[in-house]
Design goal:
Blueprint lengths: L2 H13 L4 H15 L6 H12 L3 H10 L4 H8 L3
Length: 80
């Protein structure tokens, strides 16, 4: 799977009303795998910080819909 494919899979799971913890785990795996590829390092660093601060529910909701990660979503969605 690709960086974009795995990213979109996170959103598919969210829309399937998957367990929030399952979506959180997918995000953590995606971040760990692709954190050095993503150009939006501010978002990556913020997500990593929030993971360590145990803000799972809020971070997942922001990852999916929040304005704070809009640039990250735009970057990945614009990948070919």
């Amino acid at each position: 799977m690709t960086i974009k494919g795995e990213f979109l899979d996170i959103f598919d799971k969210w829309h399937e009303i998957a367990d929030l913890e399952d979506v959180y785990i997918l995000i953590v795996k995606w971040i760990n795998r692709y954190k050095n590829i993503v150009k939006d390092q501010d978002s990556i660093n913020d997500i990593i910080w929030r993971i360590t601060m145990d803000e799972h529910d809020i971070m997942v909701n922001d990852f999916i819909n929040g304005m704070c990660y809009a640039s990250l979503r735009e970057e990945i969605n614009n990948m070919k």
